[in-house]
Task: inverse folding
């Protein structure tokens, strides 16, 4: 059994092995066209749509930050690119779109601002997911976000997931979201994009998640200092904030626990990406004051 550093704090393992490839977020914005009512979030564009979904969002308290959302305006659209082989067709849904839908009246009603979803392998030929304006199936912006869940777990993350199998496609490198305007009777006035997350990707070779004995962090939540235990073949640890921005890089020494000291960073959620020769894996860190 491995021997771990003991810190004078309660051992709280809040480990979230989110993905086994480079990262699941969209990599680039190819184009955006705003419609009437747009403007919210443009000061933080494009970073606010290229990271993970807002970790503070919940079913009845959606994201409201311009640092996390971009309003497309009525009829506006945005095209996102996933690097490498992009999104690939795997078992079940292949990507999830996160907006800021939320429930009201004790969950009896969902406030929605919807968008059409189309994908392309080459950016030229587009395939739109079939949709229903009555049931809202096939549209994005329908389901609230659970920001505390793994965004690559569609069973718990919320958002709206899509399966390339439904379009007869094996690969999609581009995702286009278009506000439904007056074509769908939703809450309006504008679709507010939070994030698009790939659930199946070939960005790096995949392998099963590290076991709990190989990938740990403690104490978690932490105040200033946290120790990260990694597997012996780990090469690097990168720390990202909840917007997907790199905030620190840590050296690894043959699987020994790595201490991250972050006294000057604000409280919030961070992601430690551990890179090994043939795969990467990420765990979730919570900093409190």
Result:
């Amino acid at each position: 059994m491995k021997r771990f550093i003991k810190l004078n704090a309660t051992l709280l393992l809040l480990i979230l092995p989110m993905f086994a490839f480079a990262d699941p977020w969209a990599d680039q914005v190819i184009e955006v066209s705003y419609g009437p009512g747009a403007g919210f979030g443009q000061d933080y564009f494009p970073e606010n749509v290229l990271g993970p979904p807002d970790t503070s969002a919940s079913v009845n308290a959606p994201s409201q930050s311009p640092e996390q959302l971009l309003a497309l305006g009525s009829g506006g659209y945005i095209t996102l690119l996933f690097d490498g082989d992009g999104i690939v067709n795997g078992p079940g849904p292949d990507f999830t779109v996160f907006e800021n839908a939320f429930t009201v009246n004790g969950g009896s009603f969902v406030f929605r601002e919807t968008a059409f979803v189309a994908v392309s392998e080459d950016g030229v030929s587009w395939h739109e997911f079939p949709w229903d304006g009555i049931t809202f199936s096939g549209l994005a912006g329908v389901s609230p976000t659970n920001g505390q869940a793994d965004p690559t777990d569609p069973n718990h993350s919320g958002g709206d997931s899509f399966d390339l199998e439904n379009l007869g496609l094996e690969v999609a490198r581009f995702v286009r979201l278009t506000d439904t305007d007056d074509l769908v009777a939703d809450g309006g006035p504008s679709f507010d994009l939070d994030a698009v997350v790939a659930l199946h990707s070939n960005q790096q070779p995949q392998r099963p998640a590290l076991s709990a004995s190989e990938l740990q962090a403690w104490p978690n939540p932490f105040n200033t200092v946290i120790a990260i235990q990694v597997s012996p073949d780990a090469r690097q640890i990168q720390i990202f904030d909840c917007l997907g921005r790199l905030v620190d890089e840590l050296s690894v020494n043959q699987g020994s626990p790595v201490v991250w000291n972050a006294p000057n960073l604000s409280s919030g959620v961070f992601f430690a990406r551990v890179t090994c020769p043939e795969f990467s894996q990420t765990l979730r860190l919570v900093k409190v004051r």
In short: Confidence is low (pLDDT under 50) at residues 1-21, 204-209. The chain has one helix and 21 strands. The helical segments are 47-50.
